[in-house]
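Example for tutorial group B:
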Protein backbone atom coordinates (compact mmCIF):
# COMPACT_ATOMS: atom_id res chain seq x y z
CA UNK A 1 0.00 0.00 0.00
CA UNK A 2 1.28 3.47 -0.82
CA UNK A 3 1.39 6.34 1.57
CA UNK A 4 -1.75 8.28 2.49
CA UNK A 5 -2.60 10.91 -0.13
CA UNK A 6 -2.77 14.56 0.94
CA UNK A 7 -5.52 16.54 -0.91
CA UNK A 8 -4.33 19.12 -3.44
CA UNK A 9 -7.51 20.05 -5.41
CA UNK A 10 -11.08 19.22 -4.39
CA UNK A 11 -13.67 17.56 -6.63
CA UNK A 12 -15.49 20.89 -6.87
CA UNK A 13 -12.33 22.77 -7.92
CA UNK A 14 -11.70 20.15 -10.60
CA UNK A 15 -15.30 20.26 -11.85
CA UNK A 16 -15.20 24.07 -12.13
CA UNK A 17 -11.85 24.07 -13.92
CA UNK A 18 -12.92 21.36 -16.38
CA UNK A 19 -16.00 23.44 -17.27
CA UNK A 20 -13.74 26.46 -17.94
CA UNK A 21 -11.42 24.35 -20.09
CA UNK A 22 -14.36 23.06 -22.15
CA UNK A 23 -15.52 26.60 -22.92
CA UNK A 24 -11.98 27.67 -23.87
CA UNK A 25 -11.50 24.58 -26.00
CA UNK A 26 -14.82 25.07 -27.76
CA UNK A 27 -13.72 28.54 -28.88
CA UNK A 28 -10.74 27.09 -30.74
CA UNK A 29 -12.86 25.45 -33.47
CA UNK A 30 -14.95 26.86 -36.31
CA UNK A 31 -18.74 26.63 -36.13
CA UNK A 32 -19.95 23.20 -37.16
CA UNK A 33 -16.59 21.47 -36.63
CA UNK A 34 -16.54 18.28 -34.58
CA UNK A 35 -13.25 17.99 -32.68
CA UNK A 36 -11.78 14.52 -32.26
CA UNK A 37 -10.39 13.93 -28.76
CA UNK A 38 -7.49 11.51 -28.45
CA UNK A 39 -7.14 10.56 -24.80
CA UNK A 40 -4.05 9.05 -23.26
CA UNK A 41 -4.94 5.96 -21.23
CA UNK A 42 -5.21 5.21 -18.43
CA UNK A 43 -4.82 8.33 -16.33
CA UNK A 44 -6.92 10.68 -18.45
CA UNK A 45 -10.17 8.68 -18.51
CA UNK A 46 -11.95 10.67 -15.77
CA UNK A 47 -10.77 13.99 -17.17
CA UNK A 48 -11.90 12.96 -20.66
CA UNK A 49 -15.36 11.91 -19.48
CA UNK A 50 -15.95 15.17 -17.61
CA UNK A 51 -14.48 17.28 -20.41
CA UNK A 52 -16.69 15.63 -23.06
CA UNK A 53 -19.80 16.18 -20.91
CA UNK A 54 -18.87 19.84 -20.42
CA UNK A 55 -18.30 20.53 -24.13
CA UNK A 56 -21.05 22.64 -25.72
CA UNK A 57 -20.65 20.83 -29.07
CA UNK A 58 -20.44 17.19 -30.14
CA UNK A 59 -17.02 15.56 -30.13
CA UNK A 60 -15.69 12.18 -31.16
CA UNK A 61 -13.18 10.24 -29.09
CA UNK A 62 -10.34 7.83 -29.51
CA UNK A 63 -7.71 6.40 -27.20
CA UNK A 64 -3.99 5.79 -27.21
CA UNK A 65 -1.90 3.88 -24.75
CA UNK A 66 1.57 5.16 -23.94
CA UNK A 67 4.15 3.70 -21.61
CA UNK A 68 6.64 5.87 -19.80
CA UNK A 69 6.49 4.95 -16.12
CA UNK A 70 5.98 1.21 -15.72
CA UNK A 71 5.49 0.55 -12.02
CA UNK A 72 7.74 3.31 -10.68
CA UNK A 73 7.18 6.95 -9.92
CA UNK A 74 9.85 8.32 -12.29
CA UNK A 75 9.78 8.25 -16.06
CA UNK A 76 11.87 5.76 -18.02
CA UNK A 77 12.87 8.60 -20.36
CA UNK A 78 11.81 6.61 -23.44
CA UNK A 79 8.05 6.75 -23.92
CA UNK A 80 6.49 4.28 -26.33
CA UNK A 81 3.19 4.31 -28.16
CA UNK A 82 1.70 0.90 -27.33
CA UNK A 83 -1.68 1.41 -28.99
CA UNK A 84 -2.42 4.15 -31.49
CA UNK A 85 -5.71 5.77 -32.44
CA UNK A 86 -8.11 3.60 -34.40
CA UNK A 87 -9.65 6.48 -36.38
CA UNK A 88 -8.44 8.21 -39.53
CA UNK A 89 -7.06 11.56 -38.30
CA UNK A 90 -6.33 13.21 -41.64
CA UNK A 91 -7.84 16.73 -41.94
CA UNK A 92 -9.54 16.49 -38.54
CA UNK A 93 -9.33 18.87 -35.58
CA UNK A 94 -7.46 16.70 -33.06
CA UNK A 95 -7.27 17.40 -29.35
CA UNK A 96 -4.84 15.41 -27.24
CA UNK A 97 -6.36 14.92 -23.77
CA UNK A 98 -3.64 14.32 -21.19
CA UNK A 99 -3.86 13.77 -17.45
CA UNK A 100 -0.44 15.27 -16.69
CA UNK A 101 2.50 16.73 -18.59
CA UNK A 102 5.74 16.58 -16.66
CA UNK A 103 8.91 15.82 -18.65
CA UNK A 104 7.04 16.39 -21.91
CA UNK A 105 8.62 13.31 -23.48
CA UNK A 106 5.38 11.30 -23.68
CA UNK A 107 3.50 14.20 -25.21
CA UNK A 108 6.32 14.86 -27.67
CA UNK A 109 6.27 11.22 -28.84
CA UNK A 110 2.49 11.25 -29.19
CA UNK A 111 2.47 14.56 -31.06
CA UNK A 112 5.04 13.23 -33.55
CA UNK A 113 2.83 10.21 -34.21
CA UNK A 114 -0.32 12.29 -34.64
CA UNK A 115 1.31 14.95 -36.83
CA UNK A 116 2.33 12.15 -39.20
CA UNK A 117 -1.42 11.47 -39.70
CA UNK A 118 -1.80 15.03 -41.13
CA UNK A 119 -4.60 16.47 -38.98
CA UNK A 120 -6.15 19.84 -39.81
CA UNK A 121 -5.20 21.09 -36.34
CA UNK A 122 -3.58 19.60 -33.26
CA UNK A 123 -4.21 21.00 -29.78
CA UNK A 124 -3.35 19.68 -26.35
CA UNK A 125 -5.36 20.03 -23.17
CA UNK A 126 -3.96 18.68 -19.93
CA UNK A 127 -5.45 18.54 -16.48
CA UNK A 128 -2.07 19.00 -14.79
CA UNK A 129 1.17 20.64 -15.85
CA UNK A 130 4.38 20.08 -13.91
CA UNK A 131 6.83 22.50 -15.60
CA UNK A 132 9.64 21.94 -13.07
CA UNK A 133 10.17 18.46 -14.58
CA UNK A 134 10.13 19.50 -18.24
CA UNK A 135 12.91 17.91 -20.30
CA UNK A 136 11.70 19.00 -23.72
CA UNK A 137 9.89 22.03 -25.06
CA UNK A 138 6.46 20.76 -26.04
CA UNK A 139 3.36 22.87 -26.73
CA UNK A 140 0.49 22.61 -24.25
CA UNK A 141 -2.45 24.75 -25.31
CA UNK A 142 -4.75 24.53 -22.28
CA UNK A 143 -3.80 23.65 -18.70
CA UNK A 144 -6.13 22.84 -15.83
CA UNK A 145 -3.68 23.31 -12.97
CA UNK A 146 0.07 23.98 -12.77
CA UNK A 147 1.49 21.97 -9.93
CA UNK A 148 4.81 21.72 -8.07
CA UNK A 149 7.17 18.79 -8.52
CA UNK A 150 5.13 16.31 -6.45
CA UNK A 151 3.69 12.90 -7.31
CA UNK A 152 -0.06 13.38 -7.80
CA UNK A 153 -2.81 10.74 -7.61
CA UNK A 154 -6.59 10.65 -7.77
CA UNK A 155 -9.15 11.59 -10.42
CA UNK A 156 -7.79 8.82 -12.65
CA UNK A 157 -4.08 9.19 -11.82
CA UNK A 158 -2.47 6.35 -9.93
CA UNK A 159 0.59 5.07 -8.15
CA UNK A 160 1.02 1.35 -8.86
CA UNK A 161 -2.70 1.20 -9.82
CA UNK A 162 -3.83 2.67 -6.48
CA UNK A 163 -5.80 5.87 -5.81
CA UNK A 164 -7.39 6.27 -9.30
CA UNK A 165 -10.83 6.17 -7.66
CA UNK A 166 -10.36 9.34 -5.61
CA UNK A 167 -12.73 12.14 -6.77
CA UNK A 168 -10.05 14.72 -5.93
CA UNK A 169 -6.34 15.21 -6.67
CA UNK A 170 -3.79 14.52 -3.96
CA UNK A 171 -0.04 14.24 -3.48
CA UNK A 172 1.70 11.24 -2.03
CA UNK A 173 5.07 11.35 -0.36
CA UNK A 174 4.28 14.76 1.12
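The residue assignment follows.
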Amino acid sequence: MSRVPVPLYTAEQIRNRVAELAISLDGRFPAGATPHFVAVLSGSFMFLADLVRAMPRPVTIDFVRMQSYGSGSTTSGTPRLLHGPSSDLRDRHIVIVEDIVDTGLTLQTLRQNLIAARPRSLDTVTLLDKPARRRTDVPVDLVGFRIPNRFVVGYGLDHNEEHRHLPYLAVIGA
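The longest strand covers residues 93-101. Compare this with the pattern of hydrophobic and polar residues in the output above.
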